[in-house]
Structures are given as structure tokens and as C-alpha cells.
Automatic annotation (TrEMBL):
Family annotation (InterPro entries): IQ_motif_EF-hand-BS (IPR000048), Kinesin_motor_dom_sf (IPR036961), Myosin_head_motor_dom-like (IPR001609), Myosin_TH1 (IPR010926), MYSc_Myo1 (IPR036072), P-loop_NTPase (IPR027417)
Location of the Myosin motor domain: 12-700
Family designation: Belongs to the TRAFAC class myosin-kinesin ATPase superfamily. Myosin family.
Organism per entry: Parambassis ranga (Indian glassy fish)
Keywords: Actin-binding, ATP-binding, Calmodulin-binding, Isopeptide bond, Motor protein, Myosin, Nucleotide-binding, Phosphoprotein, Repeat, Ubl conjugation
Gene3D superfamilies assigned: 1.10.10.820, 1.20.5.190, 1.20.58.530, 6.20.240.20, Kinesin motor domain, Myosin VI head, motor domain, U50 subdomain
An example Gene Ontology biological process: endocytosis
TH1 domain residues: 893-1079
Descriptive protein name: Unconventional myosin-Ib
Residues spanning the signal sequence: none
Amino acid sequence: MEVKTSLLDNMIGVGDMVLLEPLSEDSFLENLRKRFDHNEIYTYIGSVVISINPYRSLPIYTPDKVEEYRNRNFYELSPHIYALADEAYRSLRDQDKDQCILITGESGAGKTEASKLVMSYVAAVCGKGQEVNKVKEQLLQSNPVLEAFGNAKTVRNDNSSRFGKYMDIEFDFKGDPLGGVISNYLLEKSRVVKQPRGERNFHVFYQLLSGASDDTLKKLKLDRDFSKYNYLSLDSAMVNGLDDAANFRTVRNAMQIVGFMEDEVQSVLQLVAAVLKLGNIEFKPESRCNGTDESRIKDKNDLKEMCELLGIEQSVLERAFSYRTVEAKMEKVSTTLNVAQAYYARDALAKNLYSRLFSWLVTRINESIKAQTKARHKVMGVLDIYGFEIFEDGDNSFEQFIINYCNEKLQQIFIELTLREEQEEYVREGIEWTNIEYFNNAIICDLIENNQNGILAMLDEECLRPGTVTDETFLDKLNTICAEHQHFESRLSKNSKFLTDHSLPHNCFRIQHYAGKVLYRVEGFVDKNNDLLYRDLSQAMYKANHSLIKQLFPEGNPAKVNLKRPPTAGFQFRASVGTLMKNLQSKNPNYIRCIKPNDKKASHIFTESLVRHQVRYLGLMENVRVRRAGYAFRQAYEPCLERYKMLCKNTWPHWRGLAREGVEVLMTDLQVPAEEFSYGRSKIFIRNPRTLFFLEERRRQCLQDLATLIQKIYRGWKCRSHFLLLKQSQIVVAAWYRRYAQQKKYQTIKNATTVVQSYTRGWQARKLLRELKYQKRCKEAVTTIAAYWHGTQVRREYRKFFRANAGKKIYDFTIQRIMQKYFLGLKRDMPSMSPIDKNWSTRPYRFLDGAHTELRRIFHLWRCKKYRDQFTEEKKAVYEEKLEASEIFKDKKALYPSSVSQPFKGDYLEISKNPKYQKLNSTVEEKVLLADVVNKINRANGKGTARIFLLTKKNVVLADQKTGQVKASVPLPDLTSVSVSTQTDGFFALKLKEGSASAVKGDFLLSSEHLIEIITKLHRMGATTADRTQLDVDISDEFLVQFKQEKVCVKFIQGAPKNGNSVSCKRKNNRLLEVSVPTTA
Ligand SMILES: Nc1ncnc2c1ncn2[C@@H]1O[C@H](COP(=O)(O)OP(=O)(O)O)[C@@H](O)[C@H]1O
Ligand SMILES: [Mg+2]
């Protein structure tokens, strides 16, 4: 696949100066201008980004742009600061290399903006999340705070950084920010008390006065009017495009986000106000009688207000402004201050107050943004230091000297790494190389920082020297020592060449910096280097009842009096720059070289001479030349092979030989043209980025394939392990199931076997038992037979010794004797002859049972016969009748037992004798067998009517009891049956033959006290009469009676005795006549 390089597509000029053809300074500038005119402010020299300040906002920093540059190859898209930021960030994240972003350029060239762009880009692309976002926000918001206190409007830049700032952003292994550390370098504190024409004091003063609420100002005892304050320059108090009031709110907000407490913010503002107040303290001379000049504070109001703000006792401060105490060994000497000294003391205090406040702010911010974890982290350092500065009118002072020294050092690093280091590397690696000349500014650095005769060293020496020390003595010293240095120029130096140089005033020296000549006025060098604050002042400050102030002036603590001089400003700065350089050198550098297109801070203006100058001193041409002659990319063989080994079958996955040979095989296999790369001793050098892109692109594809492969294998593995797991589980399940099934089957078989076994055993046992039984029987039989046989044998043998049949005889005799005794006893105990005597002797022997019973029976029968033989004929007849009654009724009718003892009288009425029945007797022809009074039951209502009942041999007659008149006469043959109940009543129904003459009126229902006798007699009549069938006697509790036409059921019930013990009879309905018989009747 063709590598996409929009760096080359639609390019305005060339995006990378390396591609510039022909290469000359003019074409270089022309290319920059062309691109600048088309709003292309970024141009590459290899991996270095040149940035030209557009002085207007361009639409190239949108979130879309961030996305566009995110994770893209450096040369893939058109040049942009984001490409560099992305490259640095990815290198940090993916290759674990600490990075530093070096931003250099003159003041106003856009360094600070560039650093902010880099930070915001990194913030946008790195990880997200609540915690991470908070860290990011704090890191970003530290900028406005530091800018308010450390930036000021200068003639070159409306927002010029007046301090050096180096910020380490710390990331974890994922590339998420953890925190940061800010280092600040030498704030230009002289600005607090005096600003060059056309410049302002630090922003914060103006922001506070314009932005703070009336209330706040009142609390701080401030007035909104700038003109009231000596320290604020008035000619440029208002800056176009700067809204101080709005910025004040931004700063307050930023402080809050960074984590400042409200009381901390208040303290900070109080200090700022105090500085302003301090500026307003003025002194007037006062001559003392001893001739010395003293100073007096003109108007104490400001002093008072300031003291109130800081909680300082006014008198203490007042004294500190009037006297200076010098401590030497054990002595303390106080001298009065004259007006100039008093002003000096005041300004020194103001500068110290402000610069210490600034350092405190940095420390405080660091406290907030420092990484919370101790885990190993990677670092990206962003260096935004004040740019090279030249005041054209020669008004350059100690500050500029320091600033420019710092820039020299940075240039040095750039030269070291991009020009010298690179060229030296080619030589070292044995690559064919023609040396390219460039200006090495090491000599200038040496002039300034050399420990023996460097300018800074001499300044220190001068400051520490006893005796009178002035700026002039310092210059004299320079003039002697540095006279021969080719970059040092001074009118009075031993080098006579400058004696007539009128552009060089007497109180100045000039240094040919890498970026041009700078004329420094020595005035103030010694003081500024000394950075002296009278001890009386620091002690006064320490006494303040204000926690922050106390912290800022620790040396004022009388308990810790330190007689040693504090290190000079120059010394401190040199040390910190040294540390910074070491720090930078340990990191992978990324350069942004900022160029200022014009001096007017105007957009669209490209001042060629100005740019040419910068291009020259920045060594950009040399940079391009080295780049062009050299190689875009180099890498040691091992990491190179490691990175690209997947592109060739021979090197993938492992190369056994030397790394270099591996890389050679790789390059041959990939058919990279030989002129595109060179083999160094330990590194491969790739000439063209395009080749690198080609490799990278191939690698990316290959990685994708590998990822797919890994994915494939992983998925396969995952599926297989899942399958194996399933299989294993299935085997376990199957095993368990089989075991269970087999157990069950086994159990069934076992049970079956047991049954079969038990049957078999049973069968066998039975067989055996049979066998044994049979044997036993045989044995028994044999024994029996043997016994009998022996018995027979023995008896046969012994028969001759006994009398034959003696046994039987004895037996018979014994029986006879027993019988005899039995019979005799029976005779003796014979019962009486009464048939009802139940006595009978008991039998003596059981075997006599039958005979004994039989004898009893026979005796009873005999006794009865004897008894009967005594009967007369009449008595016999009576007994016959009684017997018959017994046969009919015994156990059938409950009335019967009571009749047994009653003799059957027959004629109860004595009908033949009683004259009353004469007539009736005469009507009845035959002999009356029975005469009695009966109750005839009325068929309709069951009421009884007394009737005379007569029974003759032929008829049954019913007659009126009173009159004796015959009411009915029924011939016996017309009677078919008699019905009686089973109970104790005397009711009986005479049933008549159907169709007979007597049956017209229906059957008779009668009741008699002599029922048994009547029925017996009636029955006998039938028995004795041969031509008649015997009368049926029907005994039951329910029978039908024919009353005229209807059949009525007569039902006997057992009822409770009501009207005495009499039987009651009731007609219940047509078909039922109920007779209630008392139970106890
Ligand atoms: N990339 C940019 N886009 C728009 N304006 C810029 C850009 N870089 C710088 N500027 C303008 O130039 C001014 C000076 O830039 P600054 O970064 O403060 O300079 P330096 O820090 O180098 O002194 C900024 O205030 C801003 O107005
Ligand atoms: Mg700046």
C-alpha cells in the first residue's frame, strides 16, 4: 500500500525544509514567507518544528484538528505543533522514553503559546476519567495563575513571560497524567518597582485593581485608580486586547481549581496590595546636627495601611526604613539610612516580597498538582523560558544578561543534539560523512559561566570582595580579564580595537551572543546580583502577624540568625540552569523553534530581515544541511530488528544470529533500495522518512495480521479448552451415570440371583428334607418293625412262661365288679316316682356315660307310664287336651304358659244348670262342649261387645249375653282357620270359608280369657271329625280378616300399658285394626 503523505500533497512551498530545492538562505526564507502568507505557520526541518507567530488566532487548534493528528505518523499530515506533541506523547507512552519539549525563540515569538498548545493537546489525547480530568484541569489551570503573577506587557510581547518555567508532566504506564512539577527560574523582579517605557508591571496588579469588587478593594485598602500607585507605570496601563477585569476572574477561578483555599487567596491578594502600598511610601531628607543625612517618611498613611494589611507593627517597619543594623561577629552596629538608601530598602523589600510570593505560589501549585502515587512514572517536560531579549537603546541590564545566558545554554543543547551530536554519530558509526560547519556557541557560554574568569564568576567575586564595590569596579575587572575574548567588547578593555567605538558607551559592555550583539549597561549589576535585603527589613517582616509573610521571610527569625551571605542571584541562576540542562539532556528532546515575523506584534507582516536574522542565529540552515546530508532516522540494530522482524520470514519469530545480520536480511528481503539506508557500526541509518513510513506501514499491516493470528489461536484455544472442559465434564457425568446404571442393573441381577438362588436352595433343601424324612421314616419303620419283631420274638419266647388269656379274664372280672357296684349304687340312690323329679345319681366312670343316660331315660319313661296308668278316662281326656294345647301353642304364643296350670273346665257358664241360659240351651241341640263369655270386636271401631260363646260338636254359636238370643251360628265345616297373635292377648279371628252362608257377615274377631282352651277344643273337633279337614291355627302378629267386603289387617303391637293392663283395640283406617298389647300383660 502506498503510504499516505499529505505532507507532500497540496503542499504550499515545502512542508519539510529537508525537501527544499535548491537549498539557500533565500529559498529558505522564501519558503517560510510563502507558507506564512498562506497561514501555514508551521514548517519542519526533519523532526524540528519551526513556528512563526501569526499574531492572530488561526482555526487550526480545534478539537477536530486534535482528532486529525491523533495517533498519526509525524510526517503523515501537514506540519503542525500537534504532530510534534503527538509524536512525543506516543513515544513516551509506547516506548517508555521520557520526553522534553524545548521551545526556544525570541521574546514574543510564541513560545508560551506553543507550550500551552502542547499541553492542551496532550491533555486532549491522554486518558479520561474523573480523577484524570481533575489532574489535567489542575495542570492546565496552573497557567493563568502563574501568568498573572509572572507575565507582563513588554514592548515585544503584551503577555511576556518574565520568569522561566519548566513543567514536568508525569504520566503512568497507560499514558494518563498523574500530576506535575513546575520549576521556575529567576523572576524579573526589578519590574515590580520600575518598568521600562512602554511596559507594564506584572499583570496581577492591574487585574486586581480593575477586577476586584469594591468590597474586596476596600478590605485591601486599595483604590481602583492606577495613577494612585507609584509602582504602576501609567503610559501603558491599558493594553489592547487585554481585559484585566475578566482575567482577574479567570485567575481567581483558576486558583480555586488548582486548590487554593479562600484564606490563601486572601493572603496572596493582601501581599499584592502591600507591594502597591509599599511603592507609595516616600521619604524626605532630614539633616541631623551631627552632619549625617537621615530620611523621614513623608506621609505615613500608606505605611500605616500596609502595616495593617500585613499585621506589622508600624513602628517596627518605620525603624527598619530608617536604620540599618550590621552584625559583625559579636558586634551590632546601627547606621541611619539616607533617603536614597531608604528608597533602596523600600524597593528591595517590594521586590523580595513579590518574588518570594511568586516562588511560594509555584510551591503551592506544585503541592496541589504533584502526583499522588509513588508508582514509577514517565515524564514529559515542557520548557518555556523567556526568550532572547535585546533592548535596542542599550538599556539591557542584569536581567537581560541572565535571560540571554539561558538562551545561549538552550542553543547549546540544540547544537549539541542536532548538529554536533548527529555529525559525531555518523563518524562514530563509520558512515561516510562530510563535515558541515556551524557556529558552536559553547565559547559564549564559557565567557559567561566559566568558573574562573567567566563574567558571572567575576561578578560574584566583585560582590564578595571587601572594600568599595561598584558597578564600575566590576566593569574594570571585566575589561581586564575578558579583554581578549572574541565575543566580549568594551570601550575601556585592553582590546584597543573598541577605543573609538562610539556606539559603545563607557559604562557598558557588549557581548556577541549567538543571536546578536547585546549592549549591557553595568549599572545595577552588583546590586541585582547581591539581591540584598537589609536584615532589619526581613526581621520586621518576620514579626508580621500574617502567616504567609512569616513563611516568606524565614531568615528574619532572630533565633536563626545566619551571618553567611546568601548565594548571589547569578550563582543561583547558573546552578539552576545547570540542573535544567542536565535534566533536559536525560530526556528525548523535541524542538519547537519559534520565530517572530515582525516587531510590531502585527499579523500578516513578514519582515524578512528580522526573520533572516533569527534563521541565522538559530542555526536553522545548518540544521537543514545536516539533516539533508544525513539520515532521517537511526536506530540500534537490536531494537530495529525487534521492531520489524515480523516483516520477513527469516527473521520471524526469532533471529538466531547477530542483530545486524538480521537487519541486513530484513532489508534485502524487503527490497529497500540500497541508497535509502546505511549500516553503521551499531545502528542502521535510514535516509528518508518515506522508507521509515514504508516500514512502519508494513509493520502495522503485519501487526494486524499477527493480531488476527493471535486472536485466531486464542479463540481456537479458548474454544478447545471449553470443548475439553465440556468433554471432561461429559465423561464425568457419563461415568457417574454408567456407574449408577450398572449399579442398578447389578442390583436387579443380584436380586434375581438371590431369588433364583433361594428357589434353588429351597428346592435342594426340600429335596434333602424329603430324603431325610424318608430316611427317618425308614428308620422309624425299621425300629418299629424291629420292636414288634423283637416283641413277638420275646412274647413267643416268654409265652411258655405265662398263662394264656389270663389278662382277658382279669379284665372281664374287673368290669363285672365295676358294673355290679354301679348298679347297686343306682338302686340305692333311686329317685322318687314323680315324673317331675329331676334327680338322678352321677355316674362313677366315664365309660358308663351312654348307659347311665339311657338308664335315666328308660327309668323316666317307665315312671311316666306308671303315672299315666293311674289316670281315669276323664282325666286322660283332660290331659289329652292339654297335650294338644301344648303341641299347638308351646313356644309359639306367649299366653300359653299361663294356661298350663289352669284346668280346661269347658262349661264356664254351667249352661245346662243355669236357668238363665235355659232357652239358649234348648236352642242348641247338641251337647255344649264349651260355654264362655267372649268379647266380640266391633268391626267398625274395634270396641268389644260381650257375647256368649258356645262350641258344640257341629257349630260355633254366638249369643247375646243378656237375652241368650243366638246372634250367629257357624257350622264347623265353614271355619277354615283361626288366627291368633304370638302375644299374651286373648284375641282370635275365626275365618270363614269363602262363599259359605256364614261368611256373609265376614270373619269374627273375638277375645276370650280362655283362648288356649277354645282354640284347642276347636282344633280337636277337627281332628276327631273324620269328614272335615283339620282347622288351621295361624299364629302371627299380623293377619288379614275378611270384614264383609273388605280385608282388614289386624296388627298386634306391643304398647305401653295405658288403661290398666287391658288390651286396647283401635280401628286405624280402612285396612288396619291395631291391637295394642301391654308388654307385661
Ligand atoms: N500560535 C499562535 N496563534 C496565534 N497567536 C499567537 C500564537 N503564538 C503566539 N501568538 C501571539 O503572540 C503573542 C506572544 O506569544 P508568547 O507565546 O507570549 O511569546 P513568548 O512566550 O515567546 O514571549 C501571544 O500573546 C499571542 O497573541
Ligand atoms: Mg513567554
